[in-house]
Description:
The chain is mainly β. The chain is built from two helices and 16 strands. The N and C termini lie far apart (about 35 Å).
Amino acid sequence: xxxxxxxxxxxxxxxxxxxxxxxxxxxxxxxxxxxxxxxxxxxxxxxxxxxxxxxxxxxxxxxxxxxxxxxxxxxxxxxxxxxxxxxxxxxxxxxxxxxxxxxxxxxxxxxxxxxxxxxxxxxxxxxxxxxxxxxxxxxxxxxxxxxxxxxxxxxxxxxxxxxxxxxxxxxxxxxxxxxxxxxxxxxxxxxxxxxxxxxxxxxxxxxxxxxxxxxxxxxxxxxxxxxxxxxxxxxxxxxxxxxxxxxxxxxxxx
Length: 254
């Protein structure tokens, strides 16, 4: 199976099509007429609550914007009981053809990481403080490799959208069936690359904030990785929940 990252489809099309209920995933929602898109489009924004054993430990605030075809994903994570020194920020900028322009992660303590294209591949710079000389690490991965960094769950939403837009799918007996897809991804905070697989499970009813909802479930797996992902097929396939069973962790959209 070829990596889905090898499909050079524009990220703007992937995000807008997912946001507009693209045919590749539209079997889970009613058809809608195409509407003109403004030059700047807020694709999604909000917060996720991170819960361990039912107790809220952190909040992620995120914003996804398309600006004249350029995709900008910003996120900030703050621990519930921590001060500013525990907060983390990230920004993911991609060109209209889905290639990485810049990824930045920083912590209030001064540590930072950046990933930039280096010819046809990627280069990561790592600094342990604001004044430290950064180290460099190359990755022999193409510039359109998805970023799947730690702690920023909005990256899982973007990967889910990409999967729903590019996965081979067919309808059988009124049900949407999609083949699993493998993605080579980069995890900047861990300074590693890895292969993950995303697979469509189908509709499920689960309880979110005390109310039962019918959502679309995806499984995200890899070596020592198991994430159960639910998106809302009736609301632009926005990420609603991520469950990490091994860590007793649940991430819910507020």
